[in-house]
Each structure stands twice: as C-alpha cells, then as structure tokens.
Amino acid sequence: xxxxxxxxxxxxxxxxxxxxxxxxxxxxxxxxxxxxxxxxxxxxxxxxxxxxxxxxxxxxxxxxxxxxxxxxxxxxxxxxxxxxxxxxxxxxxxxxxxxxxxxxxxxxxxxxxxxxxxxxxxxxxxxxxxxxxxxxxxxxxxxxxxxxxxxxxxxxxxxxxxxxxxxxxxxxxxxxxxxxxxxxxxxxxxxxxxxxxxxxxxxxxxxxxxxxxxxxxxxxxxxxxxxxxxxxxxxxxxxxxxxxxxxxxxxxxxxxxxxxxxxxxxxxxxxxxxxxxxxxxxxxxxxxxxxxxxxxxxxxxxxxxxxxxxxxxxxxxxxxxxxxxxxxxxxxxxxxxxxxxxxxxxxxxxxxxxxxxxxxxxxxxxxxxxxxxxxxxxxxxxxxxxxxxxxxxxxxxxxxxxxxxxxxxxxxxxxxxxxxxxxxxxxxxxxxxxxxxxxxxxxxxxxxxxxxxxxxxxxxxxxx
Length: 464
Known about the structure:
The protein is mainly alpha-helical. The longest helix has 40 residues, at 318-357. It has 16 helices and two strands. The protein starts with a helix and ends in a 7-residue tail after the last helix. Helix 12 (289-315) packs antiparallel against helix 13 (318-357). The protein has a two-stranded antiparallel sheet.
C-alpha cells in the first residue's frame, strides 16, 4: 500500500480544503470503489431489466445465489490470501522475482480447489433435491469461481500497488456486464434473472483474467519452486487459521439466524434470513469507510515509524532502537484512537441518514429494528480488524489466532443466545464478540509494546 501512502502524503501535505477533499476521494476510489462498482451494476440491472416484475420464486433463487457467491467466496479465499501475500512480499524483498510465478500458480490452484470442494456437493444437492435447472447451477458455480479468483488475484495486484488498474478492471468489466445483461434479455430473450446471473459470471471471470494477466506480465520468469510455496502453508498455518476464523466471525451470526424462525428456504436448497441479512449488509456499508481511514493513516503516519524501528534494529544503537520504538507505539496508539473517533462520527451521520431515507426507499419493519445493533457491532469489528492488522505487522501469529478464535466462537454462541430475544437485540451477540475481540487485541498490543524486544531478538528475525 505504499504507493497510495506516498500519493496521500503529497495530497494532504498541501493543507488546503480542496486537497483534503481530493485526498478523501482518492482514498475512497482506490479502496472501496470496486465494491460500489459491483453494487452500482446490480442496481442498474435491477432497474433497466425490470427485476421487480420477476416472479417471487425466481427472484428469491437469484438473490440467494448472489448472497452465497459473495459470502462463500470471501470465506474460501480468506485463509490463503494472507499467506500468499506474505510469500510474495518476502520474495520481492529478497529480489527473488522468479519465485512469484509459482506462488501465483499454487495459490490459484489451492483457492479454486478448496472453493470447488465446498461448492460441488452443494451444486449436486441443488440439482437432485432442489431440482434446479443444470445450466442455472453451472452458471452460478462458474460465477462463484470467478468471484473467488477475482478476490485471490486482487491480492497479488495489491502487493504490486496496482490499485488504479484494479479499479479500472472492475469499472470496465461491470460496464460490460451491464451491456451483456441487456443483450441477453432484450436480444437473445433470456429470462431476466438468468440474464443478470450470466452477465455477472462473465464479468467476474473477466476481472479475474485481467488481474491474473496483469500480475503475470510483471514476472515473466518462473523458478518452479512450488513446494516452497506449499511450505509457507505449513509454517504459517496460524495465519491461515486466524484469517479463516475472522471471516467466519463476520458471517457466523448470519448462519445462526439462517436456522431461526423466520428464515427462508428456497427450492429446498438455499437458506437465508432476508431481514437479518439485509440489516447486516446495511451495517457493513455504514462502517466500510473504516478501511479508508485505516489505509490513509497507516500509510501516512505509521509506516514511516515502523520502517525507522526496523532499520534501527538492523544497524542502530540501543538508544536509537528505544527511541524509534517509543515513537512507533505512540503513533500506533494515536492512530487507533483517531480511527475510532473519525469512524464514530461517520457511522453516526450515516446511521441517522439511513433512519430517515431507508424507510422511504422501502427498507422498514424488521430490517430497521435489527440494523442499529448490527451497525454498532460492525463499527467495533472494523476497529478490531485494524488492531489485528497491527498484530500481523509484528508477526504475532499466536495473538492474532487467539483474537480471531474469540471473535468467531463468541459470535456463534452469542448469536444463538440473543436469537431468543426481541428483534432489536438480534445483533447483540455479534456486537459482544466484536467487543471481546477488540479488547483482547488492544491488550495484546500493549503486551507487545512491553515485550517487543524479546519478541524480536529472541526469535532471531525481524519483521518484513
């Protein structure tokens, strides 16, 4: 992310209102723009193709398929992305660029295999029990693999600071997706829901192909050290587990409510809880700017202090090491407080806007009862994730694993308990899990501050 950090420093150092607004827009564009491009494309297809006229059964099948594609793609890519990103970063640091291609190949095969092992039994079940058309199932399966590959290849491009290209790929592909959906519907005369599904599948596969071809162009040579990549899975299994548990914690409360009264079963196959799932989505959107704030603050402030400390360890005096260490943790503490303060303001503003405008747009009833508690839960969860990333900075894999284990387990247990309460408290279990994980990671960082010397020197290695 250093490329964005350098650009942000150039922008904000001018200290004018115009450049501040531009800097915020720059951060938004290269962090959450891909997500909103997909959302914008979906909304456009809904409106132009007349999705509201689709029969209820067909509409619910499409909505559930889309939900499953997004949720389970994130779950299956999360465990491996962090390890693959670390391997690529290590090899770039060591200037062993020929080892990157094996990482890409092994990572792609691993992710697609793991994703397929999860999806194929479900597809067979949908075909046999749900009696859903085979071509519909195959298209949804390919869309799922396409989005999975999109998330996987996005990691390699992010390490290379290819943020502009990532945004361009999403923009072009989603534009093409929108055009294809109209061709499929109005020219070929496919059904509305299948036109949208097929167009999205092609769009996701196109994004993945563009991202993959872009990163392969940077590394034309390959060393064929495939076993070295798989060795990273063994060495950094805690990193794999912690990322999976974090992703599981984000969705586990939804899974719990998929089994509670009021859930919906479509074609004896797809299970969801529409009010709770929609409230969760709105809560995520309410707090998604936390990623923007974290990116800008870390890249503009913490990264430099972190680098100074690493350089002091390599060849500095004891006095220099102590001085840079104090500066680094002072910046870390101030960043967490500043992030909590700024995101709180944004969350409150968006929340009150949502309470005013969402009922006008048709979001009311149970959704708006569940939404406030989940908005608070995701606010804390995203703050916790910023602390988790700092644990990754210091390679505290044990601390990060415990943190994510707390998050996932309390999310499941808490949601089971709070599901018996009134709707306004449905999200309390998730909020409690976020708070417990946030508290643990905060004190874990404090422990690292006191024990950073033994954490670094007794291991015989420094952080990358």
